[in-house]
Amino acid sequence: MKILFLTERFPHPLHDGGSQRTYQVIRALAREHEVTVLADGDPTPRGGDPDFLGSLCETQFVTPGPPSASLWRNILTQGPGASLWKLKNWSPRFLSAAGRLAAEKEYDAVHCNQLDTAWYVPAGNWPALSVFDSHNSLHTYFLDRAASARGFRRWLWGRESRLLAQVEAGVLQRCTHTVACSEQDADCLSRLAPHRSCRVIPNGVDTGEIQPGPANAVVPGTLLFIGNMGYFPNSEAVRWFLDDVAPHLSGGFQFQAVGANLPLSLQQRVHPATFVAPGRVPAVASYLAAAEIYVVPLLNGSGTRLKILEAMAAGKAIVSTRKGAEGLPLRADEHVVFADTPREFAEAIRRLHGDAGWRQRLGEAARALAVDQFDWQRLGDQWLELYRS
């Protein structure tokens, strides 16, 4: 098949879960199909390589307009009552470029990567076959933010959730197939369009590249969390750990929050003995190898988290909130230790810290599950099966 793959963000550098999923889906589809990727903006300004996909497919870039001008134009054309997310990200330039490509080449399908491109489908004269890879349920994400906010922000995020639910419902009605990362997201999306099916293809991990490190590399008391801190649920998780969990821990533990864009208010709390925030690092392998326990103190968000899958592949003992492990078939005290209150989270860390045998058993079971169900090669096969159908 000839597939037009639309993505708002070119998947390089591979510093976040969304980029990793995007790259792996393109990589899988290119095994059997001719893929053209249309991305909104060259990745060079953010350290990306525009030739990163060169061996897999053709790539074209849309030159974005000035952000402020784009925002005001969208307000004028769509009205101030539109979703703020849509007003910020809607791009007539991208829609026009996709339309030109669809007219020039006889594509068999258009693949929409996240809502930021799927919302163009109702407006575009494109192939009848359209696949929407949602990555996460955006209206659910803002609903969660509203639930944890107060005052004006609570109203604002609630409004955003309602408006994005309408956008997602329209996309589900128009697209031929919708794919979610988890059963929870699939249920949330399916309620918006009850007569449309939603298939689940979860996030994955390269279990050949990420493997358990040597036992002597582990630094006792090291607690690791990895994620893009510019994503609100991740920075919120760090803040919750520092404010609410850490006071229940005695000395001897160092919390490492690895990832770019940590808010200044959290940077100011860095202390060499207790809290380290190295920012974006070239590779996380050394941090995973040194971690005694991997922590996932997430309170919000949707989809399945690549951060926990990487920890599983690395054979790490994991303490997570149930929200942090949502969408994964993890059994309590076999693959992960669940803890949802600050006191429970701290107690789980202390217990694992004192029991090396349990840490090893948890890590081995988590690694086996990652290899069996979440390796990207296996998940790529599921994407190919979807297109074969």
- The sequence of SSEs as H and E is EHEEHHHEHEHHEHEEHEHEHEHEEHHH
In total, how many domains does the architecture comprise? 2
Shape: globular
Helix content: 40-55%
Which strand-content bin applies to the residues? 15-25%
User: What is the second-level CATH architecture of the largest domain?
Assistant: 3-Layer(aba) Sandwich
In total, the number of strands is 13
Mind sketching the topology for me?
Blueprint: E1 2-7, H1 17-29, E2 34-40, E3 58-62, H2 67-78, H3 84-89, H4 92-104, E4 109-113, H5 115-118, E5 129-133, H6 138-147, H7 151-174, E6 177-180, H8 183-192, E7 198-200, E8 222-226, H9 232-245, E9 254-258, H10 264-267, E10 275-279, H11 285-290, E11 293-296, H12 306-313, E12 317-320, E13 337-338, H13 342-353, H14 356-373, H15 376-388
Parallel strand pairs: 1-2, 1-4, 2-3, 4-5, 5-6, 6-7, 8-9, 8-11, 9-10, 11-12, 12-13
Helix pairs in contact: 1-15, 6-7, 9-13, 12-14
